[in-house]
């Protein structure tokens, strides 16, 4: 695996730590800024909305830059926002700071994942994305507790300064460890990258990601009160359980990364089915400590850990460009907003288990969004027994492609008249934007 992938993970770790830091410092920040705890909660919402709505626009602004330069510009914007947060003397200044950092972090994810795809061969993209996404998992596992401890002992401003130091280290590592690559063919052209967004199938794929992450965060957002008020754990035990949950996400992320390339659709289907089971079990048995912890760990294994498979699927249906990645991240953030916000409304009306049942509903809806692709795969297989259908072409068992008809490109960057030549190896099909059905299932 290229060293640069690990460097990208460092940057993602810093961004994710900043995303979650407010959640761990709400009482201290409320006292320091002379506002209520709910007001501090709105900073989390502002960060998420800024990511979802502003991130793609900042991505467009840096789209024509060399990707390494774009990363450094985004580091600078994020750093400015984080320093502003560390020195904020009023709630309004802090709100502006969180909006700036939210927009910058979303754009950073988009450019990082595009570069990750360019640095790795097509058949290893899932594993490369999993390595980069370890920054997300470790941000949850280590970044949040670490910043909370620092803030608890040295004040909430110290936590933001600690994130500033992390950001500087990640930026310097990027200067040294990330090569200055030319953009991939079609990269940097806003029209060509945005053309993929005209594909209706891509929007269905994006909705799957929203539902996967929304289902998980509907439960995750309220683990703390559920574990203390329903399960009966002490407040001192819950952080340890959340660390264990974070460890489960790291394990699950790396497992998914190993299968995401060749079995993308099967991984997503299995993940959603298992998450439905774990969420249902947690909702039913949250009052019993051992099953509650077991089901909670299960949610960690198969929830946000679907990211490598989700991203791989988006790359194949759309493209691996920064804009598509940023829009995909916006849909993921939308899932977080829906899961946490609607879950909170449910608590007011139906009690603490309501968000978990919301997660079950969203997971089942996610399974439904996979059905068209599953049915399409069955129809292709029925049309050509012993062969694998590929977007109108037939991939023979030996791994070569026999053109059944002209192949419509998966990426808008390809020509609309492109066809797969006879004898094309399966691995080259990925580079052309054509996905063998056998690898998607």
TrEMBL record:
GO-annotated cellular components: plasma membrane
Main localization of the protein described in the UniProt heading: membrane
Entry-linked Pfam families: MFS_1
InterPro entries given in the database record: MFS, MFS_dom, MFS_Efflux_Transporters, MFS_trans_sf
Superkingdom per UniProt: Bacteria
Annotated membrane topology: Multi-pass membrane protein
Transmembrane annotation, as ranges: 42-63, 70-89, 95-116, 128-146, 158-181, 202-224, 236-256, 265-286, 292-311, 331-350, 356-375
Subcellular location per the Swiss-Prot or TrEMBL entry: Cell membrane
Domain Major facilitator superfamily (MFS) profile per the UniProt entry, residue ranges: 4-380
Name listed for the protein in its UniProt record: Putative MFS family arabinose efflux permease
Organism expressing this protein natively: Streptomyces zagrosensis
């Amino acid at each position: 695996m290229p060293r640069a992938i690990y460097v990208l993970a460092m940057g993602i770790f810093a961004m994710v730590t900043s995303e979650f830091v407010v959640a761990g410092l709400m009482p201290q920040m409320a006292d320091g800024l002379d506002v209520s705890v709910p007001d501090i909660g709105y900073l989390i919402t502002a960060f998420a909305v800024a990511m979802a709505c502003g991130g793609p626009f900042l991505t467009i602004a840096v789209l024509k830059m060399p990707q390494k330069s774009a990363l450094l510009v985004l580091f600078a914007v994020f750093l400015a926002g984080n320093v502003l947060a560390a020195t904020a003397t009023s709630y309004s200044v802090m709100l502006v700071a969180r909006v700036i950092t939210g927009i910058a972090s979303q754009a950073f994810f988009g450019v990082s994942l595009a570069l990750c795809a360019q640095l790795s061969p097509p058949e290893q993209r899932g594993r490369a994305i999993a390595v980069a996404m370890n920054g997300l998992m470790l941000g949850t596992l280590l970044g949040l507790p670490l910043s909370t401890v620092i803030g608890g002992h040295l004040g909430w401003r110290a936590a933001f300064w600690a994130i500033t130091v992390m950001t500087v280290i990640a930026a310097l590592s990027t200067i040294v460890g990330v090569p200055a690559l030319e953009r991939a063919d079609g990269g940097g052209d806003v029209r060509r990258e945005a053309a993929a967004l005209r594909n209706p199938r891509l929007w269905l794929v994006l909705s799957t990601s929203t539902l996967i992450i929304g289902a998980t965060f509907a439960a995750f957002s309220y683990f703390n009160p559920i574990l203390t008020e329903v399960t009966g754990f002490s407040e001192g035990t819950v952080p340890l359980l959340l660390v264990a949950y974070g460890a489960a996400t790291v394990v699950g992320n790396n497992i998914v990364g190993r299968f995401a390339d060749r079995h993308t659709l099967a991984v997503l289907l299995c993940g959603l089915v298992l998450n439905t089971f774990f969420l249902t079990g947690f909702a039913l048995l949250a009052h019993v400590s051992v099953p509650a912890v077991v089901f909670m760990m299960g949610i960690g294994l198969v929830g946000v850990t679907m990211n490598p498979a989700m991203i791989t699927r988006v790359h194949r249906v759309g493209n691996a460009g920064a804009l598509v990645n940023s829009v995909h991240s916006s849909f993921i953030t939308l899932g977080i907003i829906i899961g946490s916000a609607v879950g909170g409304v449910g608590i007011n009306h139906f009690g603490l288990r309501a968000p978990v049942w919301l997660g079950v509903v969203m997971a089942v809806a996610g399974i439904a969004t996979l059905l068209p692709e599953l049915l399409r795969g069955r129809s292709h297989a029925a049309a050509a027994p012993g062969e694998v259908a590929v977007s109108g072409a037939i991939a023979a068992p030996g791994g070569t492609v026999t053109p059944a008809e002209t192949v419509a490109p998966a990426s808008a960057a390809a020509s609309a008249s492109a066809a797969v030549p006879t004898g094309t190896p399966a691995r080259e099909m990925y580079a052309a934007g054509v996905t063998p059905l056998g690898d998607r299932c």
